[in-house]
Amino acid sequence: MSLLKLENLSVTFGNFRAVDQISYSVNEGEVLGIVGESGSGKSVSSLSLMGLIDYPGKVSADQLTFMDQDLLSMPEAQRRKITGSDIAMIFQDPMTSLNPCFTVGYQIIEALKTHQGGTKKELKHRAIELLTLVGIPAPESRLSAYPHQLSGGMSQRVMIAIAIACNPKLLIADEPTTALDVTIQAQIIDLLIDLQKEKQMGLVLITHDLALVAEVAHRVIVMYAGQIVESGPASEVFSAPKHPYTQALLASLPESAAGRARLQALPGVVPGQYDRPKGCLLSPRCPYVTDHCRNVEPTSQGSLERQVKCHTPLNTQGRPAA
Amino acid sequence: MFQFIFRRLSLVIPTFIGITLLTFTLIRLIPGDPIEVMAGERGVSAERHAELSAQLGFDQPLYVQYFHYVTGVLQGDLGNSLVTKEPVLSEFLTLFPATIELAFCAAIFAIFVGLPAGMIAAVKRGTLFDHSVMTFSLTGYSMPIFWWALLLMLIFSVTLGWTPVSGRIDVVYWIDDVTGFMLVDSILSGEDGAFSSAVAHLILPSIVLGTIPMAVIARMTRSSMLEVLSEDYIRTARAKGIAPWRVIIIHALRNALIPVITVIGLQVGILLSGAILTETVFAWPGIGKWLIESISRRDYPVVQGGILIVATIIIVVNLMVDITYGIVNPRIRHSR
Amino acid sequence: MTIATLQAPAPRTPLQEFWYYFKGNKGAVSGLVFIIVICLMALFADVVAPHSPSDQARDALLLPPAWMEGGNWAYVLGTDDVGRDILSRIIHGARLSLSVGLVAVTASLFMGILLGLVAGYCKGVVDTIIMRIVDIMLAMPSLLLAIAIVAVLGPSIVNAALAISIVSLPHYVRLTRAATMAEMSRDYVTSSRVIGASPLRLMFICILPNCVAPLIVQATLGFSSAILDMAALGFLGLGAQPPTPEWGSMLADALQFVQRAWWVVTFPGLMILLTVLAFNLMGDGLRDALDPKLKQ
C-alpha cells in the first residue's frame, strides 16, 4: 500500500521553479533513493513534504497525500500532528541542525512530548532507549550533553533518535552523510537501513551517492533541474538507464572508469533561473541532442513504475532509440 | 564556570586602574594652577596656597600623588566637595537612588517595548509592521534626547496637562527619605496619592531616557532574530511538528537573545550618560544633574569622583553582562 | 515559457554595483539628498538666510511662525526672545554643526587609522597598550567622557570638537585593527612582504585600501554621533557659547519657553533630528551597498 503519493508537485519561488511537476509514490517499508546534482530540487521537494517551505516559496500539487490524507488542504495544526510523528526528517548538516542552547535530552524529549506526552520519568526513560537504539554509548550521561560537545557522527545519531522518536511511518533523510567523515558515513547508513527494516518504515534517501542508492534502494528517482528525468526499480535504472542524464551520472562514477585513463564527466552545470533552455532542460549538456530536443520540451513516458522524460530514450545498448 | 568568572574579573582590574589614571590625570590637565583654579576668582594668599598644596599633596612627586589617590579611592575616600564640603561619596550616595530609579524604569520601558517589537518585526518580516518598527527605531536612535524631553514636555505637560513638568513628586507631599527610591518611599509615607504622583513624574523622563536603548534593542533583536530564524536548528524544530509560537519563543528567542543581552548591558552606559541630559531637563535630582552643576561650579573633586564612580559602575555592569552571557550561552560556559 | 526569456544581469563594475544597491535603498537616497541640501544651505548660508543670525529685531520678540496668528512672513519660523530670526539661526547653525562634525570625524578618523594600523601591524606590547587604552575609553559612555574633557579644558566650541574627536577614536582604532589583522594573514600581504615591501608601504598601500569600506560606514555614522554629541554639549552649555548660532545651544535656555513659545523649542531640535537621521540612513545604506553579502 502506498504511504505517500504525490502528483505534479511544484515548488516555486517567484518566477523560479525549484521543483517542476514531479510525481512519485513511496510504499510502506520501501527505500526510495532520490539522486541528482546540487540544485536539482531534491532537498526543496522533501522540505515541501514536511510543510517547511516558507513564503515566498509556494507549493502546489494535483495530489499530495499521506496515508490517504490530503496534506495540502488540511489545517496547519492537523498537519503538524503528522509532521515529526508519522513523517520525520533528518538533515544534511547535523552540527548545525541541533539547537546549541538546549541539551540533547531536552531536544529528544521535546519531540516525544509534542506528539505522545507522558510523565517526566517515562519520557526520560524513552529518550535513553532511543539513544541506545541509535548506538550512542553511555546514553544516560549523554542526555545532559550540549550539541557542541558531540562529534558530527554523534550529532547525526541524535538527529536520527529525534526523527524516529515517534515511530514514523516515513523517514526522509536529506543527504544524511554528506557532512560527515567517510568512515562515519557507512555507520550512519547502516544504522538507518537497520532501523528501516526493524520498524518497516518507508525511507526516502536523498543523496548524490549513486553507489549507495544502488546498494540500498528498492526504487530510484533521478532529478535534474527540478524535474524527474527518470525513475524505476533501482536495479533496472542502474543496469539499463533510459535517460542520457542517468547514463552520464553513472559514467561519472570512479568505478565505471576502471581501466580507462580519465573519469567521464558531464560538461556544464544545472541551469539556473536565468539560463533555462527552451526545449529539454538537459539539451545544452546532452551528448545525443537533436534540434527537436532544443525546441520542444519532452513529456514523461512510461508508467509511474518506470518513467523517463526524454524524446529518444536509450535502449539497452545505451544508444538513443531511433 | 568559576574559571570563566575569574578570567573576566582579572580583565577588569587593569581597566579600573586605567580609569583611576584617567580621572587622576584629568584634574591635573586643568590649565593653570589647580589650587588657584579651585579657589576661583577670590584667589588665595601665598601661605594658604602652600598649605593647601601640602594638604592636597600637590607638592609631592606625581607617582606618590597617584598612589595616595588610589589608596584613598579604594578606601572610599573620593575627597570633599569644594562647595558643600561634604564627602563626594556620601553626596553621590544620597543622589544615586534617584538616578537608579529613573534608569531602571527607562530600561524596563526600553526592554518591554524594544524586545517584542524587534521580535515581531523579524517574524513578520517585510510587512508594514516591520517597516514601522524599523522607521521608529531609526528615528529613536537619531533622537537628540534633550530635545525629545522638551518636546514631550511641551505636548504632554504643557499642552495636554497630563503629566507634571518636572521633579520627582508633587510639592504638596513631604516624603521621608527612607530608601531614596521615590516609588518605595511614597508608599511607605502612607499619604494618599503620593505614589501615583511619583509614578506620574517618572513617566516622561523614563520614556525619554529609554528611547535610544529601546531603538537599539529593537534593531538588535530584529536582526539577531532574523539570523536565528534561518538557522538549521529552527528547521529541525519545525520538522518535529512543534507549534510555530513555540519554535519562536523557545528555540529562536533563546538563541537570538544572546547578542541582545550584550547590547542591553551596553545600554547601561547610554542610560547613565543620557541621565545627565534627561535629569537636566526634568530637574531630576540625580547624579547627572549633580555632575553638570559641579562642572559649572568648578567643583573639581565632585567631577573627578563622580566620573570615577560612574565609570566603575559601567565596568561592573559590563562584567555582570559578560557572566550572564556565559550562563545563557552553553558554548561559552564550557569553553576551557 | 516566460522563465526562459529572463536574462542574466550583466556583470557590473564595483562602483556600479555599489550604486545599484545604494539607489535601491530609498532611505539612504533620501538621507543623501537631505545631506546635500543641508551642505548647500551651510555653504551659502549668507545668501540663503533671510536675516543675519545675530540681528535682533527689537520690535519682534518671540514672534510665532508666519502661518500662525500674529506671525510675519519676514520671520518664517518666528523669532526668539531677543528678536533673532530662528530660520536664519538654523541655517547658520548648519554651517557650524557640519564643520564641527567634519573636523571631529576627520581628526578621529586620521588618528584612529594610524593607531589601528600600528596596533594591528605591530601586535605584541604596542597592540596591548593601545587596545587597553581603547577598552578603557569604550568603558565610558562617549558623552560622559566628552563632558569630562570639556569640563577640564573649559567650555568652548573648539574644545567640544576636540572632545568629540577623542571619544570617537576607539571605534576607528578597533575597526582598523581588526581589518588589519585579518588582511595581514592573507597571502597577498605575505607575498608583498616577501618581495621586500617596507612596513609603511605594507600598511598604507597594501592593507589600508582593504579596510576602507567599513571605515567609510563608520565615518558616516560617526558624523551623526558627532552632531548629536555636539548638540548635547551645546545644550548643557559646554559647547558653543550663547551668541553663536548652534543648534544645541539654541535649545540651552529653551526650557523657559516651553510654556509660551513652542517654536523656539521645536525647530532647532527638529533640525538636529533630521540631520542625524539623514546621516544614519545614509550610513546604513552605505553599509548594505558596500557589503552586498551582508544584505539579507
TrEMBL record, chain A:
GO terms for biological process: peptide transport; transmembrane transport. Residues 4-250 form the ABC transporter domain. SMART domains: AAA. The keyword Hydrolase does not apply. It is a peripheral membrane protein. It catalyses: a dipeptide(out) + ATP + H2O = a dipeptide(in) + ADP + phosphate + H(+). PROSITE patterns: ABC_TRANSPORTER_1 (PS00211), ABC_TRANSPORTER_2 (PS50893). Its EC number is 7.4.2.9. It is an enzyme of class 7 (translocase). GO terms for cellular component: plasma membrane. GO terms for molecular function: ATP binding; ATP hydrolysis activity. The keyword Membrane applies. It is found in: Cell inner membrane. PANTHER family: DIPEPTIDE TRANSPORT ATP-BINDING PROTEIN DPPD, OLIGOPEPTIDE TRANSPORT ATP-BINDING PROTEIN APPD. Belongs to the ABC transporter superfamily. NCBIfam families: oligo_HPY, PRK11022.1. This is ABC-type dipeptide transporter.
TrEMBL record, chain B:
Keywords: Cell membrane, Membrane, Transmembrane, Transmembrane helix, Transport. CDD domains: TM_PBP2. It comes from the Bacteria. The chain crosses the membrane at residues 12-30, 95-123, 144-163, 198-218, 256-287, 307-328. It is a multi-pass membrane protein. InterPro entries: BPD_transp_1_N, MetI-like, MetI-like_sf. It is found in: Cell membrane. Coiled coil: none annotated. GO terms for cellular component: plasma membrane. Residues 96-321 form the ABC transmembrane type-1 domain. Signal peptide: none annotated. GO terms for molecular function: dipeptide transmembrane transporter activity. SUPFAM superfamilies: MetI-like. Belongs to the binding-protein-dependent transport system permease family. OppBC subfamily. PANTHER family: DIPEPTIDE TRANSPORT SYSTEM PERMEASE PROTEIN DPPB-RELATED. This is ABC-type dipeptide/oligopeptide/nickel transport system, permease component. It comes from Marinomonas fungiae.
TrEMBL record, chain C:
The keyword Cell membrane applies. GO terms for molecular function: dipeptide transmembrane transporter activity. It is found in: Cell inner membrane; Cell membrane. The keyword Cell wall biogenesis/degradation does not apply. Keywords: Cell inner membrane, Cell membrane, Membrane, Peptide transport, Protein transport, Transmembrane, Transmembrane helix, Transport. Residues 94-283 form the ABC transmembrane type-1 domain. InterPro entries: BP-dependent_transpt_permease, MetI-like, MetI-like_sf, OppC_N. One of its GO terms (cellular component) is plasma membrane. The chain crosses the membrane at residues 28-48, 98-121, 133-151, 157-173, 194-217, 223-240, 261-282. It is a multi-pass membrane protein. Coiled coil: none annotated. One of its GO terms (biological process) is protein transport. CDD domains: TM_PBP2. NCBIfam families: PRK10913.1 (NF008160). Belongs to the binding-protein-dependent transport system permease family. OppBC subfamily. This is ABC-type dipeptide/oligopeptide/nickel transport system, permease component. It comes from Marinomonas fungiae.
